[in-house]
Amino acid sequence: MNQKSRLLTIGQFASLHGINKKTLMWYDEIGLFKPASINPENGYRFYSYHQSSLLETILLLRELDVSINEIQGFIKDRSAKSLKCLLDERIAELDIKLDHLRAVRETLCNYRQNMETLSAMDLSKICLVQKKERCLVTVDIDRETSYDQGVERILAKTQEYELRHLHDASYGTMIPVRCLYQRDFDSYSNLFMEIPLPSSCIQSSREASSSPAHRAEARCAAVPRVQKTGLHIQPCGTYLQAFYQGDWNKMPAKYEKILAYAKSCGLSLTGFSYEKIINETVTDRMEDYIVQIEIPASK
Fold first, then answer.
1. Which has more confidence, 59 or 151?
2. What would you report as the CA-atom Rg of the chain, rounded to the nearest whole angstrom?
3. In terms of Cα–Cα distance, which of 205, 181, 215, 194 is closest to 278?
4. Apex CA 92: angle with CA 91 and CA 98, to 5°?
5. 287: confidence class by pLDDT, cuts 50, 70, 90
6. Which of 106-120, 139-153, 187-201 has the lowest average pLDDT?
7. β partners of residue 243
8. What is residue 163's predicted lDDT score, i.e. its pLDDT?
9. Residue 267, CB half-sphere, CA atoms under 13 Å: how many?
10. Least confident stretch, 146-150, 204-208, 228-232
11. Between the CA of residue 160 and those of 55, 96, 153, 171, 209, what are the distances in Å?
12. 0.70 exceeded by the pTM?
């Protein structure tokens, strides 16, 4: 078998790697990837199968958006160390993209859940539901906090957590349950944003915001607490769930029904009442807004 029979034409080599032969011609022209030999009579390029590993590495790096200049630098100083450095950088970038995609998926799932709830809801119904742990970013408010001030504070938090769009999070308000029992239904204490943070971020935020003793306390406490950093872990468990639609001034009447229901069922309400509008994406009229109310409950 002669030397030429062990080589592949440019078309064969391109087909082997699933690329256009013009790509190989361009790589040759810029000095990135040269053929094994060139026929001096007709200029035809030929490639060795043993070049496949290097070409696949180049194609992988291009798929990861590594620039031609960076790849050329790697080719000139090809080593395990230089390739590891390139891959470390790209893996870090991919991790960021994956976190963002997971966050987007979580947002879409929340929207879909809200639409499913809307399609089958009974506004008069009060029931118990099971909730997973949620990570909420909170800002403090009180009776003196104006609407504009609340908006400014929540927007500052979106910037702090580098949200690209408002729809990257869902928003709501919190009332301490002790205020509900005191019939003080207007004592909102916090605005919240629900951000689908990776579990590692939640853990690091918990650790950064409390001492070892406080961390142990947080793991054991049944009632959620607002962390100094503004990170609030809404615990998993049983929640009393209700919905309200109509004149916002009549919301206290809904809470009276909630308290009466809890009393009749022997339920103790704890922590906070979490309010969230679930249909603002499909209506523009405030009077048509449906507020979802969820409160931790136990026997």
1. 59
2. 30
3. 194
4. 85
5. confident
6. 187-201
7. 292
8. 58
9. 22
10. 204-208
11. 42, 17, 11, 16, 16
12. no
Any alpha helices (H) in 120-211, and if so which ranges?
Answer: 147-160, 177-181, 199-208
SS3 67: coil
Query: Residues 207-252: pLDDT tens digits?
Result: 444 443 333 333 333 333 344 455 788 999 999 999 999 888 899 9
Closest residue by Cα to residue 155 from 181, 191, 120, 187: 191
* Tokens encoding 276: 């969230």
Question: How far is the C-alpha of 184 from the C-alpha of 252, rounded, in Å?
Answer: 9
User: Does residue 202 contact residue 135 with C-beta atoms inside 8 Å?
Assistant: yes
Q: Which residue has the tokens 């976190």?
A: 99
Which two three-digit tokens encode residue 199?
């579990």
Q: Which two tokens stand for residue 230?
A: 């503004």
Q: Both tokens of residue 67?
A: 């620039």
Which helix (H) or strand (E) segment is 194 a member of? Answer: strand 190-194
Tokens at 88, concatenated: 């470390």
**Pairing label, strands 170-176, 272-277:** antiparallel
**Residue 108 CA, distance from chain mean position:** 10
Nearest alpha carbon to residue 291 among 235, 253, 234, 262? 253
Query: How many angstroms separate the first and last alpha carbons of the chain?
Result: 85
Beta-carbon contacts of residue 146 (< 8 Å; ≥ 6 apart)? none
